[in-house]
Design goal:
Layout: H1 13-32, H2 39-50, E1 54-55, H3 56-63, H4 67-79, E2 83-88, E3 91-99, H5 101-122, H6 129-144
Antiparallel strand pairs: 1-3, 2-3
Helix pairs in contact: 1-5, 1-6, 2-5
């Protein structure tokens, strides 16, 4: 068998955006591996850091997940001593979510990683697919250098 030819094809804008999202997720996952935080947990901790005492309904909406899924995520983060739930003093049927000290440390690292990626994205003009391709290459390079 001879050398395999790699076929090139034009990526649609939607495909580029999907690949960019995937690479961002991989970079975040890799950068947060040392603190044992997965991407979905990172988004949760990031939100609770920004909105301390948020209720679970708002958090589930933000994360675009079902309440039962959120409850399972919170239980895992409670076991890791990253978050805690309290009864909302104004509504005993609601729970509020807060970061514990270990959660604040994790949130600080998460914010740093999110900020670094945001700086890369802001440096690229996203008016056309050429610029999206440029962003994809930058993120691929960053992902491969980790």
């Amino acid at each position: 068998m001879g050398d395999k030819m790699v076929q090139q094809h034009s990526l649609t804008t939607a495909e580029l955006i999907y690949q960019i999202g995937q690479l961002e997720g991989q970079i975040i996952q890799h950068r947060l591996a040392d603190i044992g935080i997965r991407m979905e947990h990172a988004r949760l901790l990031h939100y609770v850091n920004d909105v301390p005492g948020t209720n679970l309904v708002n958090l589930a909406d933000y994360l675009n997940i079902q309440p039962a899924t959120l409850t399972n995520m919170i239980k895992k983060l409670e076991k890791q001593e990253l978050v805690c739930r309290y009864v909302d003093p104004s509504d005993s049927h609601q729970r509020q979510l807060f970061l514990l000290p270990k959660g604040e440390v994790a949130a600080k690292k998460i914010n740093t990683v999110f900020h670094e990626l945001n700086e890369i994205v802001e440096d690229v003009h996203l008016e056309n697919s050429v610029e999206l391709t440029k962003l994809l290459k930058i993120l691929e390079h960053k992902n491969n250098s980790n």
